[in-house]
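LAB NOTEBOOK - FOLDING QUEUE
OPERATOR: T.R.
BATCH SIZE: 2
PURPOSE: Compare the predicted structure-token outputs for two unrelated chains run back to back under identical settings.
PRIORITY: normal
REVIEWER: second-year student, initials M.K.

ITEM 1
FIELD SEQUENCE / FIELD STRUCTURE:
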Amino acid sequence: MKAVRRTTRSLPGLLFLALALALVALAAPAPRASAATGVSAVADALRKNPVYVDPAAATQLSTADADALARQIKDADKPLFVAVLPAGYPTKNLFTDLRTATGITGLYAVRLGDRFDARADSSVLPRTAVQNLVTSGQGESAKTQLTDFTDRALTNMGGKAPASWGGGSTGGSGVSGTALIAIGAVVVAGGAGAYALVRRNRRRHEEERRAALDRLRVVVDEDITAFGEELDRLDFHPAEPRADDAMRADYERALNAYDQAKSAMADARRPEDVRAVTQALEDGRFSLAQLAARREGRPLPERRPPCFFDPRHGPSVTDATWTPAGGAPREVPVCAADATRLADGRDPAVREVDTDYGRRPYWDAGPAYGPWAGGYFGGGILPGLLIGTALGGWMSAPAYAADYGTGYGDFGGFDTAGYQGGDVSGADFDPGDFGDFGGGGGDFGGGGGDSGDFGGGF
């Protein structure tokens, strides 16, 4: 009986001890994943915190340095995800699988052994910008490389930090059950408001894009009209005595280009749709140049971009040195008339458009003219032509990539899903933005990348 009484008296103490142990377990840091953690576990960690260091790579980046990096990213409120993994970590489809598992639109950087690479959704950072950031920090220690990359990326990237990061310590410590309940209540209460905010932002983006298209429509209609007048002045008849099959084919291509341009403009719903219009006009003008050469018995012209100063001048005939106000000299394609003007020290005949500040050259008129110029000049040549101009600056910014295409390199399509940096898109993203680590098919080699990869720096 005495033994029973001693046991009974000890029950409150045992209950207290059990409760204390439970509270300690809740407050204790979550156990770190094992070395070579699976992609799902890495993604789960990144959904909670912007920086993840695998236990097997702990010597690369200390806990204090990782916490400092995470605080910097959170303070900047940007969707930048950093993972430090061991050298032997599997690389095939690493970025694509990580982006799929995380499900959050953002910029993903991975330090793997002494190698480094990154990928991003195009609405956050254009692929050329990602590649430049990656290559600028090769050969550095993990701390220096990741710090420099983070500093530069946060300055250039768009989007907002994901809500799942929340607040609290960045060191990975747990939170109490009460805190979790409170956080859950806040999330539920704010869900409707957040949804309304997202809808409002998307409506605003759509209104801006419609306004940009309206501004473009005036300029493109002028272009189409000018090309139609060229066709009227041509005075070519397919049945005329000197006409041959090649001439008739040139003429037919020009007419088809005119019809395609009108049809594409009638169907345009977004600024980036204008690229198809100006591309058709550029094709049509080259066909007219070929036709003129055949009729006059001259050698056929080589395929060159249109005159940089005004594409309505037709295909360029040479390159000339031009210096924009406040910019550096560069070679631009010019028509014969503008080449003569420049050689004589005169100003070229520049295409000006209406803006809120009066008539301005198209390269100083706003980001909406990026797709317009892209159709005429193509993605490969245009960035070099526009460096140092207002349009060149807009086109290299994340906001331009989000609103008017996937970047200045290719003038790709707009993300119709409307996801911005930090949005939870799940698996709804462009896999072309995320390739194998290093862009070399998953083997860390090369680094040159291909059309589906950002390249690397390996």
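ITEM 2
FIELD SEQUENCE / FIELD STRUCTURE:
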Amino acid sequence: MEATVAERGQITLPKAVRDALGLNKGTQLKVELDGSRIILRKSVDDAISRARGKFALDGFDSAQAAVRAVRDED
């Protein structure tokens, strides 16, 4: 796969790459240099912060209680 650098330094990642990594508009990527390589990494912190607070506990007193129930712990 290839990507071309546009006039303002922008590139378009191939759709197969975006789909495989779940990259959407606004997804933050970390950019690193390794010699002559450019490494792009999906920001794990970004994914966690977007998910935070989006799930209901459905009758559990705390997240820990929900985790114990899912793990089938007493």
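REVIEWER COMMENT (ITEM 2): The mean pLDDT is 84.
FOLLOW-UP: none requested
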